[in-house]
Design a protein that fits this description.
0% of the residues lie in helices and 40% in strands. It is an all-beta fold.
Length: 157
């Protein structure tokens, strides 16, 4: 499943990925198009926040703006901003793996927090919460993560 994200205005509603049948070769791919065959003008940021490119912006407390509960998901090239107060455990991307075999890949994104207050380690750009279930594999690479209590938070039982 390919989900292309276009920069035609901010997406303002948190997204949950849950209930899909996925596997190592049949994963959900959420991305911003960059290739001429996908789109005329790239929809991906150039390494700095860009309001003309795709962005997911909103206030999500005690969860991520993007919540991933399926086992095989890839997220590439998005800009995600959570405006919730830092003491309310906001996250950019939150991952709750369903099985020990899960593999979620997060790369080339910009994740920023703009909520008030000071974040503790619960407020994270990427939060992998495997405290109540199997851990799976989380691969995070080449992201820009800033103004969170923690850039990447890993929670295991």
């Amino acid at each position: 499943m390919n989900v292309a994200c276009y920069g035609d205005g901010p997406d303002g509603t948190a997204v949950t990925i849950n209930g899909w049948t996925t596997g190592p070769e049949t994963y959900i791919n959420i991305f911003t198009p960059v290739l001429p065959g996908h789109v005329g003008t790239t929809q991906r940021h150039s390494g700095v926040w860009d309001a003309t490119k795709y962005r997911l912006v909103g206030s999500q407390t005690f969860a991520g703006m993007l919540l991933i509960q399926d086992d095989y998901v890839r997220v590439t090239g998005l800009q995600i901003e959570n405006t919730a107060a830092q003491n309310n455990r906001p996250a950019g991307i939150e991952v709750f793996p369903g099985t020990a075999a899960a593999e979620v890949r997060i790369s080339h994104n910009i994740l920023r927090a703009t909520g008030t207050g000071t974040g503790d380690w619960w407020a994270a750009g990427v939060a992998h919460r495997a405290n109540s279930g199997p851990g799976g594999v989380l691969k995070v690479s080449n992201n820009i993560i800033y103004d969170w209590g923690a850039g990447i938070f890993l929670e295991y039982a």
